[in-house]
Amino acid sequence: MKKYSKQRELILNSLRKRKDHPTAERLYLDLKNEMPELGIATVYRNLSDLCEEGQVIRIKTSSGPDRFDGNTMPHIHFECKKCGDIVDIVLFENEVKQLDNDLKKFAKQISAEVDGSDITITGLCKKCKKKLR
Amino acid sequence: MKKYSKQRELILNSLRKRKDHPTAERLYLDLKNEMPELGIATVYRNLSDLCEEGQVIRIKTSSGPDRFDGNTMPHIHFECKKCGDIVDIVLFENEVKQLDNDLKKFAKQISAEVDGSDITITGLCKKCKKKLR
DNA sequence: ATTATTGCAAAAGTTTTGCATGCCG
DNA sequence: CGGCATGCAAAACTTTTGCAATAAT
Known about the structure:
2 domains; DNA-binding; 22% strand; two-stranded antiparallel ribbon; globular; Dna Ligase, domain 1; homodimer
């Protein structure tokens, strides 16, 4: 049976509060300030558990370690090719619905049963666009 | 200046021919039959180069090593959560255009400049759907 | 009291890098 | 020749795992 732990609560709450998308190590370093005994394996273990439970999203990046997202509203991601930042793009319900419909239609081609999707847009973020001039 | 190499040609051609999405190691093992001197570092190096040139696509999987795709036609991927297989879903030009438009519209929210996207649908593939019954 | 979770260290899995040698232009 | 690419082995990086100790039910 699933047991409460101070560590898991800390990890989940922290992830829900921050709007960046930290790596496991970043999160570990930050939380170690509040809880010095914290071990990195605990962070990895809880992040994996939380992902399976659907409380947290794991984001694969084009290079480097995975990042984690405590935002479970339907949304997609933008990854800046220059600075590596990942930004949430939150969608309206009708946009989500349309997108899901499209994807389901596409999946019919291969007779698969769809249960989720992962959309990442890549390019230059606002900040990096400015820097180029 | 970029130099020709037998190894890179072999890797690219092989990737274009196969319709699965091999890992670097799978590709290495397969190609080692044709070219026993081949080293795995060469495979990794060339795959990375080819990805940067846009001749090959790197697919991040939900767990396990990256996979590579020699198909550069506009398409999206389906990843089966059961068997891990990755299948191409090729889109019609108008579908691509509509999807791109939608994504660009979404990206306006964060004032980013879009230059690509990565869409993966997850679920159960045809084969695994059958096995469940 | 029982059992899940922790922290640590070691191991595993994947990818990259340094360097001497070989091949391309 | 001069320099980029190769093959090998070692290193780097990220994540997982075994285990004894601790904390939650």
